[in-house]
Amino acid sequence: MYPFFKQTQGPHFSLSYCSLLLNHCLSQKSLDFVKIVHAHFFKLGLNTYTYLGNHCLNLYSELGHADDALNVFDDISHKNTISWNIYLKRLLKSGQLGKACHVFDAMPVKDVVTWNSMVSGYASCGFLSHALELFVEMQGTGVRPSGFTFSIVMSLVSSPFHAKQIHCRMIRIGMDLENVVLGNSLITMYGKVGLVEYAFGAIMTMKQFDVISWNSLIWAGQRAGHSELALELFYKMRDAELLPDQFTCSMLMSVCSNLRDLDKGKQVFAFCFKMGFIYNSIVSSATIDFFSKCNRLEDSVQLFKEQDQWDSALCNSMISGYARHDLGEDALRLFMLTLRKNIRPTEYMVSSLLSSVSIFLPVEVGNQIHSLVPKLGFESDAVIANSLVDMYAKFGFIDDALNIFKEMKIKDLVSWNTMMMGLTYNGRLSSTMNLFRELLTGGGMLPDRITLTAVLLACNYGLLVDEGVEIFSSMEIKFGVKPGEEHYECVVAMLSKVGKLKEAIDIIETMPYRGTSDIWRSILSACAVYGDLQIIEGVAKKIIDRETQTSLPYSVLAQTYQMRSRWETMVRMRKAVETKGTKEFIGCSWIGIKNTVYTFASNQLQHYGGKDLYLLLNLLGWEMETEGYV
């Protein structure tokens, strides 16, 4: 079978020949041949030799046979650092982190390769803080980090402070920052933490750039929200006569998606076509996402149909596009097709599907998707858990949402925000406030704009005026969140409901934004109960100035004048309503009956056999009041 495999006797000339055989094994990647060669070593008594043992150990490791590698490692009489490093890498590659830690502690000598393996192993298993601690410990033992060490560490950095520390350390120990690989890692690191100016500083120190350098810089600008800057960098890249690759084109499509700029996106699309990347999976999925976000879903569907082969990236983009346009049934249908084509669903795909289910599909569909989560091994994924919490909360199964939230091992701020919003919209206002206090005391995170919106909405719905005003007044000083329009709207609505119209108007007047007609509408609604004529007229004028075609303020004024027997003025207001001739936007609701979801406006309920539905809704309303949700 192997004619060149001759019988050799004596170790005096067989070592070089055995090395040749092992190199052939490595090129062929044949486990059977490796075992034949290894058996020959046993016959000649060469299995204890360090050099040949390391070769065999590396071969078994490369072929994924951990048990055979362990046997070879045990046979080596005099293990050197290379022996230990190969064995350590095998353990880490097979996910045996605990055993690798024991081997690491037992090693008599640790070189930079040893430390790099352990730092990388901790990082790949998700123990980022342990990896960084090991990096510090490594320097304490006197081992000088290599460029590869810093490449690993830079990929773990999550704060600007740590990014600057790592960069300073590289300068201090004299690392070659003109090196393209290290320079690219620096650009990516600074882009990840939002320090775009430092990313520019890193590229300025490099003598040579490659496509990855420019891609990293474009990505840094895009990630920081500087989309126009990202496009400018692309133009400079073209001036430097560097040929963009598929990653460049993918990022450009993402930039145009963020800008919602259809014209520029079409230009990039034409460029991708010219470069031959249009049927590349990465570029195609970004283009499908772009057309979807620019309300050109038909173009997304057309491009998706033209693809010769589907993969998870393409299906992700198309399913999220359907979900974004409230086409839940189409998203579900495509998801089923991906399963039939043996395309493994990703976390993002399942999350997008759950978001579409929570809008227009029956909850039973959501339950079926939920049952797939543990089968796919996604039960510990935070993104999917957040989507499940959101889905059950929107369907009103708030206890199920709470159970999922409590079982989450790792909760990010999105998890807390999703749960608090769900509790608020389901009338569990005290639970929202309790969860907010829990976040402040034990969550380990500061609330953001969305968190405070959920809390202020709860204060608004529950008329917790004192608590709401206190949170609103201190949110910038205490949490570093500048009040946005949504926060002002919550506080103004809350104050208006309890008759504090003057305070509500004063808050609007001090807003750094121009008050929208919606924020004045909440005051106008309260004016009918609490306001005097002067306030009602002033608020009505504010709305008319901002929304000239609306008839709402005229209707309220007509009613107010009628209550005060000012008949002539009332008639003028009613004529103004008629001359406007505009239709106010009417909100819609939906009810799921069996496998159908009926959507209707406030005046359409009778169309669906309304009497029975009204009775059912009244019963639900009474039950909610009894349970304290309203």
Automatic annotation (TrEMBL):
GO terms for molecular function: RNA binding. It holds the Pfam family PPR_2. One of its GO terms (biological process) is RNA modification. InterPro entries: PPR_At4g14850-like_plant (IPR046960), PPR_rpt (IPR002885), TPR-like_helical_dom_sf (IPR011990). It comes from the Eukaryota. PPR repeats lie at residues 111-145, 210-244, 311-345, 381-415. Keywords: Repeat. PROSITE patterns: PPR. PANTHER family: PENTACOTRIPEPTIDE-REPEAT REGION OF PRORP DOMAIN-CONTAINING PROTEIN, PENTATRICOPEPTIDE REPEAT-CONTAINING PROTEIN. This is Pentatricopeptide repeat-containing protein. It comes from Sphenostylis stenocarpa.
